[in-house]
Design goal:
The complex is a heterotrimer of chains A (about 270), B (about 400) and C (about 300).
Chain A (H helix, E strand, L loop, with lengths): L1 H31 L17 H4 L8 H33 E2 L3 H13 L2 H15 L5 H25 L3 H9 L4 H30 L2 H6 L6 H9 L5 H35 L1
Helix pairs in contact in A: 1-11, 3-6, 3-8, 3-10, 4-6, 6-8, 7-8
Chain B lengths: L12 E10 L2 E11 L4 E5 L6 H9 L6 E6 L2 E2 L10 E4 L11 H11 L5 H11 L15 H13 L5 E5 L7 H18 L2 E6 L2 H7 L2 E6 L2 E6 L1 H6 L4 H6 L4 E10 L3 E6 L2 E6 L9 E6 L5 E3 L9 E14 L3 E8 L3 E8 L12 E7 L4 E2 L20 H15 L1
Parallel strand pairs in B: 3-8, 3-9, 6-7, 7-8
Antiparallel strand pairs in B: 1-2, 1-4, 4-5, 9-10, 11-12, 11-14, 12-13, 14-20, 15-19, 16-17, 16-19, 17-18
Helix pairs in contact in B: 2-3, 2-4, 3-4
Chain C lengths: L1 H8 L10 E2 L1 H29 L2 E2 L8 E2 L5 H40 L6 H16 L2 H11 L5 H8 L13 H25 L3 H9 L4 H12 L1 H17 L17 H11 L3 H26 L6
Antiparallel strand pairs in C: 2-3
Classes of the chains: A mainly alpha (about 270), B alpha+beta (about 400), C mainly alpha (about 300).
Chain lengths: ~270, ~400, ~300
C-alpha cells in the first residue's frame, strides 16, 4: 500500500533534509575560509589557501590573539568550574543536608537567567566594587555560569554510580581516600570529562556575558562581533573551521572507538 | 584486624541489644544474636523484615542506633567497615567494572598490603573454577560467573566472618541449586563463619546449620532447619517456612502427655512436648505432607486425629506430589500434600474425603490466637480468578 | 558530552534513603556554593540596587548614586514595552518552530534508529555540530545567505515568490529564523534523551488496544516525552528571550526588530544608563521566572535539577 511505504520513507527523508539544513552555515563558513577576500568576506573572489597558511598575519595577529585569549580563559574556567561543580554534584547525590532545596534552586537559577542579565549583573557588581575588567573578570564570569552545567552533567553520572561499588570498596578494607581514588573517581571520570568539555565549549563560544565583562580584552567571539560591522577577515573563518574540524574529529573518534570496544566485549563473552 | 594477617578460623559473632532507626521508621527494634564460629547461619525473612539491615550493621556499612557488635569477643561497634575482619558478597555482586576479574579479587589483599596478592587471587579464582577468566572484565562474564568472582573476592581475604546478601537471587533455578551446594562445600573446606541473608526458605533450609527467622525487626525463632520446620513457634514461622494448616480453639482438657483442643466440635490431640501453650485458646497446626486422605470414614484411633467429612475443592498435580484443597465445614480449607506413589491423583474434585494425621505430627503455637492474617493464606488454587469468582457467584445464587 | 547534561534533566530521581549524613557534605558544597553566592547572587542584588539608582547630582554621564528611585521601572516600561513584548513574542514563535522542527528529528534518531547505535551517535554529532562553530559565525552565515544579493533571494525573486523590493534580512522573519536555527540543538537533545528511553512496548500496547498510529502518538508518545519537551522548550525559550545577537543590526536584525537584549546592551555599554539597563534586566528575569514557574508546575516536572 503506497500510503504505508510513503510513511516509511517520510521520516528518514525529513531527517536527512533537517541535518543538511543544520549544516548549511557550517559549510558556508568553511567554504568562505578559502575566499581570497580583502577586508570583508562577503563576496566570493577566488579560492586560496593563503588564509589557512598565514592565519595570524592579518591585523597584526589580532585574530590569533583573540583566539589565544579564548583558549586561556576556556582552560582556566573549565578547571575551576569542573572542580567546584564535581564536588557539589557528589554532595548532592550522596549526602543528606539541610537547605537541599535552596541549593538546587541556586544551581538552577544561572541556567534559567538570560545571559544579558548575568552579564549585566556581574558588570554592575564589578563596577560598584571598582574592579577593572580584564582576563580575570572574564574567567570569573565564565566559571560562574559553567558550574551549573557541570553539576547537572556530573550529577547524572554520580546518580548512575551504584553505591554498592563504593560499599564493596569499604568492605574490602579501602579507606575513604582509597575508595575515592580507586573506585569513585575512575568511574566518574567519563562524566567529569564530559562536563569539562561542555564547560570549555560554553566558555569558548560565549559572547554576551563576555561582552559585558571584558573591558579591553578580546576573545574570539568578541572579535567577530566587533568586526561584524566593518568586515570579518577570512582568517576568523579559518580558525572557526579548524576548531570545528578538531571538535568533530574528537567526538566522532570517541563514538566510533566506544562502539568498537562494545562490539569487542560482546564478542568475547 | 591487623594488616598482613589472616584469621586462622572463623570467629563468633555476637549482637547485643542492637537497634537501628532510620528517619521515619525503625528497622530493628531489639536484636540479640549469637552465631558460633565456623557455622553456616541463615537470616531468613520477607522483604523489609530487617535482615539486610542486620547484615549491613555487621559489615560496618551502617552504624547501629543502639547496642553492640562483637566479633571474636572484640567490640567492633565503633570500627568502620574497612577496619573490620568481615567481607560481604553483595546481592548485585558489586564487581568493579573498570578492573579485571583478577584485580577485583586482589583488591582487598592489596589494601591490606598482603604479600603476593596476585598469587593468592589466582588461588581463590581456582577455588571457584574461574582462573581462566582472570583477565576479563566483569561485564564480559555471565551472571553465575560474576557471582563466583564476587565470592572469590570475599573469600580470598579469609575474613573472620563472611556475609552473603541474597547472592543467589539473580540466578536461574538450576544454577542456584549448584551454587548452594558449592557454597556449602567451600564453607566446610575453608572453615569460615558464613552469615547468609535470604528470603528463600528452601535455600536457607538447604544450606544453613542454623536459621533465624526475622519479622518486622525481630527474630521470631532460631534453630536448626528441621527444628524450625517441624516445631514452629509462631504463625509467621509456620506459614513462612513451607505451608501449614492452622486451627484455633480452646483447650478442652489435658492428660499428662497431651492436650485436647476443640476445633469446630472435634477433639484434636497435640502432645504437650510439641505445644507451647497448654491452656486457654491456642492455635495448633499440622503440615500438609503429614495428612492422609481417606475415601471412607476411618476407624477411630487414639494415635491419630480425624477431620471430616470434607469435600475436595481443588486438585493440583505437580509431578512429584499432588496438592489437594479440602473444605471441611466449620473448620475451613485444609491443604494436603500427597506423594504420587501411584500414577496421578487419587481423589477427584468434589469427592467426599476424610483427613487424618498422626497425633505426634501436630504442633501448638506460642502466639496469641488471632484471626488468620489474610496475607498468609496461601493462594493455592490453580483456577483462574475469573473461574473462582464465577463458582462463588453460582454458589451465592444457589443459596439465595 | 552535552547529551549527558540534558540527560540528567530527564533522569529519574535517586533514592533519598540511600544518602548519608556527614560533615564531608559541607566541605564539598561550600566552595562551589560560596562561589555562586559571590558571583551570581551578589551580582543580582547589585543589579537590583543599581536599578534603583538615581543620577549623581554633580556627576557626568555614567555616574550614579544609591537611591530608591522606583520610577526607573516605570520609565523603562513606558519606553520599552514594545521591545519586551516583541522579545517574548519572537522567543515564543522560535520555540514553537524549533519544537516542530526538532521533534521528528529527535524521534527518528531516538526511536526509529535504535537498531543502529553507531548511526545514532553520528547523527547526534551532526545535530550538535553547529555548537562547534561560533554562534556568531553561524548567524553571520545566514545573514549572507539571506541577503539581497544571495543565490536564495535572487532565485526566489526570479520565480516571483518574493516581491522585487523585499528583504529577508533585517526583518522579524530573519530574526525569528536565526533564533530558531541557533536553538534547535538545545531543543533536540533533551527530546532525544527522553525519546531514546521510550519503551517501545508502550506503543505496541497502544496498537494492541485499538489505537491507530496517530492516536497512539497523541495519547502515548507525547505524554511520555513530556519531560524532554519541557526541558527543551525551557532551554530554548529562556536564552531566546534575552538574545540580542540575532536581532542586532549587524546580524539578522533591522531597525524595528530590536529585542530587549539589544536595549539592555545599548543602555549598559553605550548610553551608560546603568539603572535603566538594570531595571530592564530585572524585569526580564522576573517575567522569565514567573513563566518558568507556572510552566513547570503545570507540566508536573518537579525535579528540574
Amino acid at each position: 500500500m503506497t500510503r504505508i511505504s510513503l510513511g516509511k520513507w517520510l521520516l528518514p527523508l525529513y531527517t536527512a533534509l533537517a541535518l543538511i539544513f543544520l549544516m548549511v552555515p557550517i559549510v558556508y563558513t568553511f567554504i568562505f575560509s578559502f575566499n581570497d577576500s580583502l577586508k570583508s568576506n562577503i563576496t566570493w573572489r577566488g579560492f586560496t589557501f593563503d588564509k589557512w597558511l598565514n592565519v595570524c598575519a592579518v591585523q597584526n595577529g589580532a585574530v590569533c590573539e583573540a583566539f589565544g585569549n579564548s583558549l586561556v580563559i576556556g582552560l582556566a574556567a573549565t578547571v575551576l568550574a569542573t572542580t567546584l561543580g564535581t564536588m557539589i554534584a557528589i554532595a548532592l547525590v550522596r549526602y543528606r543536608f539541610k537547605f537541599r532545596a535552596g541549593t538546587s534552586l541556586l544551581l538552577f537559577l544561572p541556567m534559567a537567567t538570560p545571559e544579558v542579565v548575568l552579564g549585566a549583573g556581574l558588570a554592575a557588581q564589578f563596577l560598584s566594587l571598582g574592579v577593572p575588567k580584564d582576563m580575570l573578570t572574564i574567567i570569573l564570569a565564565h566559571t560562574m555560569f559553567c558550574i551549573s552545567f557541570v553539576v547537572v552533567t556530573v550529577k547524572a553520572r554520580v546518580a548512575g554510580l551504584d553505591p554498592a561499588l563504593e560499599e564493596a570498596g569499604r568492605d574490602l578494607y579501602g579507606s575513604p581516600a582509597q575508595v575515592f581514588a580507586r573506585i569513585t573517581f575512575p568511574l566518574l571520570l567519563p562524566g567529569i570529562l564530559a562536563a569539562a568539555l561542555l564547560s570549555f565549549a560554553l566558555s569558548f563560544d560565549d559572547f554576551i556575558i563576555t561582552n559585558f565583562n571584558s573591558g579591553a580584552v578580546t576573545t574570539f567571539p568578541k572579535y567577530i562581533y566587533i568586526s561584524a560591522s566593518r568586515g570579518i577577515p577570512a582568517e576568523a573563518n579559518v580558525i572557526a573551521s579548524a576548531v570545528f574540524i578538531l571538535a568533530l574529529v574528537i567526538v566522532v573518534t570517541a563514538q566510533v572507538s566506544s562502539a568498537a570496544r562494545a562490539k569487542r566485549q560482546a564478542r568475547l563473552s | 584486624m591487623s594488616s598482613g594477617a589472616f584469621a586462622d578460623r572463623g570467629a563468633d559473632l555476637e549482637l547485643v541489644g542492637i537497634q537501628k532507626r532510620f528517619p521515619g521508621f525503625t528497622a530493628i527494634e531489639h536484636l540479640d544474636l549469637v552465631i558460633p564460629a565456623g557455622s553456616f547461619f541463615a537470616l531468613l525473612g520477607p522483604s523489609g523484615c530487617g535482615k539486610t539491615t542486620t547484615l549491613r550493621l555487621v559489615a560496618g556499612l551502617e552504624d547501629p542506633t543502639g547496642g553492640r557488635i562483637l566479633i571474636g569477643g572484640e567490640d567492633v561497634t565503633t570500627q568502620k567497615a574497612y577496619q573490620r575482619p568481615v567481607n560481604t558478597v553483595f546481592q548485585s555482586y558489586a564487581l568493579f567494572p573498570h578492573m579485571t576479574v583478577l584485580e577485583n579479587v586482589a583488591f582487598g589483599l592489596r589494601r591490606r598490603k598482603i604479600a603476593d596478592a596476585q598469587g593468592k587471587a589466582h588461588e581463590a579464582l581456582r577455588l571457584v573454577e574461574l582462573d581462566h577468566l582472570a583477565a576479563r572484565k566483569p561485564v564480559q562474564l555471565s551472571g553465575g560467573q560474576q557471582q563466583r568472582v564476587a565470592l572469590a573476592r570475599a573469600i580470598v581475604n579469609r575474613p573472620a566472618l563472611l556475609l552473603l546478601d541474597e547472592p543467589l537471587g539473580a540466578l536461574d533455578l538450576k544454577l542456584r541449586r549448584q551454587m548452594q551446594l558449592e557454597l556449602k562445600t567451600i564453607q566446610e573446606e575453608v572453615g569460615l563463619t558464613f552469615l547468609h541473608v535470604t528470603h528463600d526458605q528452601e535455600e536457607a533450609m538447604t544450606m544453613a546449620d542454623t536459621i533465624a527467622v526475622m519479622n518486622k525487626g525481630r527474630i521470631e525463632q532460631l534453630g536448626a532447619p528441621e527444628q524450625l520446620y517441624e516445631l514452629p513457634k509462631t504463625a509467621f514461622v509456620a506459614n513462612f517456612l513451607g505451608q501449614s494448616n492452622l486451627f484455633t480453639g480452646p483447650v478442652l482438657g489435658e492428660t499428662s502427655t497431651a492436650i485436647a483442643v476443640d476445633i469446630a466440635g472435634r477433639s484434636i490431640v497435640v502432645p504437650k512436648t510439641r505445644s507451647h501453650r497448654h491452656s486457654g485458646d491456642v492455635t495448633i497446626g499440622v503440615r500438609p505432607e503429614k495428612l492422609t486422605l481417606h475415601k471412607q470414614k476411618p476407624v477411630p484411633d487414639s494415635s491419630h486425629n480425624v477431620m471430616g467429612p470434607g469435600r475436595v475443592t481443588d486438585v493440583s498435580f505437580t509431578g512429584v506430589s499432588t496438592q489437594y484443597l479440602v473444605l471441611v465445614p466449620g473448620v475451613g480449607t485444609l491443604i494436603v500434600f500427597a506423594q504420587n506413589r501411584a500414577f496421578g491423583p487419587v481423589e477427584g474434585e468434589g469427592d467426599e474425603v476424610w483427613v487424618t494425621w498422626n497425633v505426634e505430627h501436630g504442633f501448638g503455637l506460642d502466639d496469641d490466637p488471632v484471626a488468620p492474617d489474610p496475607r498468609f493464606v496461601a493462594d493455592t488454587s490453580t483456577k483462574s480468578i475469573a473461574a473462582q469468582r464465577r463458582a462463588a457467584l453460582v454458589t451465592e445464587l444457589e443459596e439465595a | 558530552m552535552a547529551f549527558a547534561a540534558f540527560a540528567s534533566i530527564t533522569a529519574p530521581p535517586t533514592d533519598a534513603a540511600a544518602r548519608r549524613r556527614s560533615p564531608v557534605a559541607l566541605l564539598l558544597l561550600l566552595p562551589g556554593i560560596l562561589y555562586l553566592v559571590l558571583f551570581f547572587l551578589a551580582p543580582l542584588v547589585s543589579l537590583i540596587l543599581t536599578s534603583l539608582q538615581a543620577p549623581s547630582e554633580f556627576g557626568d554621564i555614567g555616574m550614579y548614586s544609591y537611591a530608591f528611585r522606583w520610577e526607573n521601572y516605570v520609565v523603562v516600561m513606558e519606553q520599552y514595552w514594545p521591545h519586551i513584548l516583541r522579545s517574548f513574542g519572537y522567543a515564543l514563535i522560535a520555540t514553537v518552530l524549533a519544537l516542530a522542527f526538532s521533534y521528528p528529528l529527535a524521534y527518528f534518531i531516538g526511536v526509529t534508529a535504535r537498531k543502529w547505535p553507531l548511526l545514532q551517535s553520528l547523527m547526534l554529532v551532526l545535530v550538535i555540530a553547529p555548537f562547534f562553530i561560533s554562534f556568531l559565525l553561524r548567524t553571520l552565515a545566514w545573514k549572507q545567505l539571506l541577503s539581497d544579493e544571495s543565490f536564495l533571494v535572487t532565485s526566489l525573486k526570479a520565480v516571483s515568490l518574493l516581491a522585487p523590493d523585499a528583504h529577508l534580512t533585517g526583518t522579524a522573519f530573519s530574526v525569528i529564523f536565526g533564533l530558531t536555527y541557533n536553538f534547535i540543538p538545545f531543543m533536540t537533545l533533551p527530546l532525544y534523551t527522553t525519546l531514546e528511553r521510550l519503551d517501545l512496548r508502550y506503543l505496541e500496547a497502544g496498537n494492541d488496544l485499538y489505537a491507530n498510529g496517530f492516536h497512539t502518538f497523541r495519547t502515548v508518545t507525547i505524554p511520555l516525552s513530556m519531560p524532554g519537551i519541557v526541558a527543551g522548550t525551557l532551554l530554548t525559550f529562556i536564552p531566546a528571550a534575552g538574545d540580542y545577537i540575532n536581532a542586532s543590526r549587524d546580524f539578522l536584525g533591522g531597525a524595528d526588530t530590536q529585542m530587549i537584549g539589544n536595549v539592555i546592551e545599548a543602555n549598559f555599554l553605550v548610553l551608560l544608563n546603568y539603572p535603566a539597563a538594570a531595571a530592564l534586566s530585572i524585569i526580564l528575569m522576573t517575567v522569565i521566572l514567573v513563566i518558568v514557574g507556572v510552566y513547570v508546575k503545570r507540566s508536573g516536572t518537579e525535579e528540574l535539577l
